[in-house]
Amino acid sequence: MMAAGSLAVNALDVLAIWVIFQHTGSPAGFDLAEVMFLYGTASLSFALSDMLFGNVDRLSPHIRAGTFGTMLIRPAGAFVQVATDRFGVHRLGKTVQALIVLCIALSQLGVPPAFANWQPGLFVLDRPGPLGLPYGLRFAAPLAALALAVLAVLAWRAGIRRYRSTGS
């Protein structure tokens, strides 16, 4: 029920975009399918990250309660345990809604599926960048994501090595 409610609430984003297009025509030269493609890729990225890593913000209460030390002695990794603790089914609604929007946009555009955001999305749509940024920047997003993921893993491991249980 929560997933269906989340899907319905997130569908309001699509409705808002549709209303904007009904009143403005083609903002910055983009048509509705192109904007839905950009919206779908961004929403899917955020929804997947929220679904997979949204519970990591619950780490502090585990540390305060002394339950994080218990996670460290279990055979599963501490990160996996924290990430899956109290998984919210409502997060599936966001993911499904983003997938639906992206699939509809892709069917309208006839472009292949791509892991994209703004700059990579412009590449997939074969559109010039309105900001005049270098063309090569369109391929930097995956490299930046990989670099940030490596930094996050290193920070997590450093924190785990230095963690001392509350002793309770």
From TrEMBL:
InterPro entries: ABC-2_transporter-like
Segments traversing the membrane: 32-53, 96-115, 135-156
Top-level taxon: Bacteria
Record keywords, A-Z: Membrane, Transmembrane, Transmembrane helix
Pfam families from the UniProt entry: ABC2_membrane_6 (PF06182)
Species of the source: Streptosporangium album
Name of the protein this chain belongs to: ABC-type uncharacterized transport system permease subunit
Presence of the UniProt keyword Flavoprotein in the record: no
